[in-house]
Amino acid sequence: MFYDSYKEAPGLLDGKQKKYDVVVFACAEAYRFTASRLKAEIPWFYVPVTDASLYRGLLLAQRTGWDLGRLSFDTYEESVLREVYDELKYPEKKLHIKCYLANSSNPDHELNVYNFHRNHYADADGCSGCITSLSGCATLMETANVPHILAHPSLDEIRECVRNAKGWILSAMDTGSNIAVVSVDIGLPPDYIVIDDSDFGASATRLKVMEIIYRYAANVSGAVFEIGSSGYVIVTTAESIKKKVTISGIASCWTGSPENVPMWSQ
d(Cα 236, Cα 224) in Å, to the nearest integer? Predict the structure, then answer.
């Protein structure tokens, strides 16, 4: 499925998910925007924007003759950008970068990112160019003649994501007879090491957590084995565990208020 803007993705996918084994989104923005409007009926993956994409963008910026210390970015956190510049041994005192981060589930996200780059470039003390990971934003900047580079994922990153999706499909084809094992450790965190195991409060909480574990095991048709005083192993089938694959399945069994969920169950 092809689109000009990731905002079109929900409409393209709506009512058609069951025709596919998995969905691989071209970017995180398309994934998040679609997730805010559609419920996933099959596994969803997306191609992440990694440091490799950023390094590629910086290399192209250098070859174009831009001042690497005066660039505007989106998607990447400023702390990540500064780490990359530090790895490149770029002088901190020459670094004047700008970064735009916002909720990509907003329908106006691409336009807001474009306005950020355009305004920063037009400013008297602005940037020498813009690096974006949004194809829609790049199209807008192309029309407005704003110098930009699209930091898209490399072919290797795309292949890796597709391999992961393919691996999920192959494993899902033969899960009925495979054994799945969940290991749970409810030992006290280091901050609470001063609490004696015989402490009434700690013992009471452990009993509550044990109840959660056994209830979760029942939900996945599993058998529970106790390992020492603080460890448990749940043995079941892969088909059963796939339905409650995340640890949130255990926490969701807690019957109290959310703020009182035991630390061990988190």
Answer: 9
Regarding pTM above 0.85, the answer is no
d(CA 151, CA 134): 8
CA trace torsion 101, 102, 106, 107 (10° rounding): -30
pLDDT tens per residue across span 114-147: 999 988 887 766 788 999 988 888 888 999 999 9
- DSSP letter at 214 equals H
Cα(150)–Cα(224) distance, rounded to whole angstroms? 51
Whether the Cβ atoms of residue 68 and residue 90 lie closer than 8 Å to each other? yes
Residue pLDDT, tens place only, 54-83: 888 899 999 999 999 999 998 888 888 888
What's the distance, CA 201 to chain centroid?
36
Q: What is the mean pLDDT of residues 243-266?
A: 44
Question: At 177, which amino acid appears?
Answer: S
Please give the structure tokens belonging to residue 80: 């990540």
Give the number of other Cβ atoms within 10 Å of residue 257's Cβ: 7
Q: Are 238 and 179 in contact (CB under 8 A)?
A: yes
Strand pairing report for 98-100 and 71-74: parallel
Buried b / exposed e across 36-71, counting CB within 10 Å, b at 16+? Answer: eebeeeeebebbebeeebbebbbeebeeeebebbbb
Judge contact between 113 and 74, C-beta under 8 A.
yes
